[in-house]
């Protein structure tokens, strides 16, 4: 005989349930949470090889550099504790102050000038989409980026030499008085290196800006032209605001390249004439491997790293939030 429950009877209240009982569905939710955790662990396993490589080849050497910066050490004999003396010398040593000042000058040539010129070329190219051979022009302008920097430096040493292309051109124009050994002149050596940086970075900035222009809706330009906007107004009202993210990226890349310049200075001038073209990265190399001041070199390297991080953080503030 089957006994059925009265329809008005309710299930046992929660208070009468066993202590270890769970509400219906809770086990399912716990299962989903466990699967999420397992998927998260799998994701970390994919990242682990890259993290190990980073830790071995970048993380641990960086920690060692910080350690060396607190010692006076020539790389061979026992090190002696120096405290913060090496960091104080970054601000008090005339050569080191000049090196950071030269890096600031290079920032104008490596960042400000290429970005302004690339914006100007972008405005021209974006209004001349039907110009024949446009892809060729873009390739030629970007070509310096794919050439090894040592090769670039060697080429420009030849161009700047006494019988180089620049001096030959000046002689053909009857301007013999302006000829000089550009990389051996105290006044012109640093700007000469900076001009090479301009030549290197303008193609990078141009490619970034042209890619940004390609993402702008054509209807915006058509509406501006229907309203009678000229080329200048169109550029400042539509193109320039739309390139804010690309400008931030270009500014970050070019400023960092200016601050960490080494190979170009090493090949072209070796920091000379005198110390007129020394930069922080070159000073770190010179002190570590030529003058036996490993602790001072480490302090310069750490100070340069901090400067780059601060500058990068400041530049990121102008970047739109939707592309950060």
Summarize the structure.
The protein is built from 13 helices and 2 strands, in the order αββαααααααααααα. The protein is mainly alpha-helical and 324 residues long. A hairpin with a 7-residue loop joins strand 1 and strand 2 (80-81).
Q: What this model shows, in words?
A:
- This protein has 324 residues and is mainly α.
- The radius of gyration is 31 Å and the shape is flat.
- Helix 3 runs parallel beside helix 7 and helix 12 packs antiparallel against helix 13.
- The chain contains 13 helices and two strands; from the N terminus they run αββαααααααααααα.
- The chain has a two-stranded antiparallel sheet.
- The termini are far apart.
Mean pLDDT: 85
The shape is: flat
Radius of gyration: 31 Å
Taken as a percent bin, the fraction of beta residues is under 5%
Number of helices: 13
Sheet with most strands: 2 strands, antiparallel
Helix content: 55-70%
| Widest beta sheet: strand line-up | 1-2
| SSE run | HEEHHHHHHHHHHHH
- In terms of quaternary structure, the protein is single chain
| Content-based structural category | mainly alpha
Count the beta strands: 2
Weakly predicted, low-confidence segments: 1-16
Distance between the termini: 72 Å
What are the SSEs and their pairings?
Blueprint lengths: L25 H43 L2 E2 L7 E2 L3 H8 L1 H33 L7 H13 L2 H12 L4 H8 L16 H25 L4 H9 L4 H12 L1 H16 L3 H6 L11 H10 L4 H23 L8
Antiparallel strand pairs: 1-2
